[in-house]
């Protein structure tokens, strides 16, 4: 495969909560650039499924909380890129939702270096105890309950991952709207390197061994 860029997105909710993926995003998501797509659930219409398959046939999906018509989808999955094990789940089974310690426990249970989760419709990326956690937000900016204060609306976002060996470079795309209502795509870059295990001391003798 010529490209191993990995597209990460979720919580699309088309057409229930959003009309479509923003056009400015669709213009960026062209075939031939992306090797794999990880969808973190709530891919609720066939047209968007077909669109994503046209970008990259390797489309991996996990079950979201409202994927009621896809009962056979797994709640979580693991893929490997470079030397990184990358787990992904929608996150509605993580209690409390979005809790850092609960996500860390999930990452340990899945035995992954990187954990992707969704459900909050809000981008996050951080390291905790040597593991990397990524929430790509909602690719459509679909509304969510319980995560946004007042009249604040989710910012549409998705992520691209570029993995080389033990290094993951994350590109975050967010559709921003200024005070005049003009939309533009902002891109941020975040890097993560897998920690090496501490070296074992050489020549260590068993203190209980007979002399």
List descriptors.
single chain, mainly beta, five-stranded mixed beta sheet, six-stranded mixed beta sheet, globular, 211 residues
Structure description:
The chain is mainly beta and 211 residues long. Helices cover 13% and strands 32% of the residues. It contains three helices and eleven strands. Strands 3-2-1-9-10-11 form a six-stranded mixed sheet, with no helix packed on it. A five-stranded mixed sheet has the order 4-5-6-8-7, with helices on one face. The radius of gyration is 19 Å and the shape is globular. The model has no long low-confidence stretch (mean pLDDT 87).
Helical percentage: 10-25%
Unreliable segments of 5+ consecutive residues? none
Q: What order do the SSEs take from the amino end to the carboxyl end, as H and E?
A: EHEHEEEHEEEEEE
Radius of gyration: 19 Å
The residue-averaged pLDDT reads 87
Biggest sheet character: 6 strands, mixed
Percentage of β-strand residues = 25-35%
**What is the 3D form?**
globular
Number of helices: 3
Strand order of the largest sheet: 3-2-1-9-10-11
Q: How many strands in all?
A: 11
- Could you tell me how far the N terminus lies from the C terminus, measured between alpha carbons in angstroms? 58 Å
Structural class determined from secondary elements: mainly beta
């Amino acid at each position: 495969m010529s490209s191993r860029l990995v597209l990460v997105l979720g919580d699309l909710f088309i057409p229930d909560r959003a009309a479509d993926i923003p056009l400015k995003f669709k213009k960026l998501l062209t075939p031939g650039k992306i090797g794999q797509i990880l969808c973190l659930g709530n891919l609720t219409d066939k047209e968007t499924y077909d669109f994503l398959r046209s970008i990259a046939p390797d489309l991996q999906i996990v079950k979201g909380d409202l994927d009621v018509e896809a009962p056979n989808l797994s709640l979580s999955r693991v893929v490997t890129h470079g030397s990184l094990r990358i787990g992904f789940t929608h996150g509605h089974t993580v209690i409390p939702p979005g809790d850092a310690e609960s996500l860390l426990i999930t990452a340990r249970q899945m035995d992954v270096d990187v954990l992707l989760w969704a459900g909050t419709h809000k981008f996050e990326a951080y390291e905790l105890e040597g593991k990397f956690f990524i929430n790509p937000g909602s690719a459509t900016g679909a509304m969510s309950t319980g995560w946004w204060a007042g009249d604040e609306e989710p910012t549409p976002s998705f992520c691209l991952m570029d993995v080389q060996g033990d290094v993951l470079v994350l590109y975050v795309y967010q559709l921003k709207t200024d005070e005049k209502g003009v939309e533009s795509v902002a891109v941020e870059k975040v890097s993560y390197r897998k920690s090496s295990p501490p070296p074992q001391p050489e020549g260590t003798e068993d203190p209980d061994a007979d002399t």
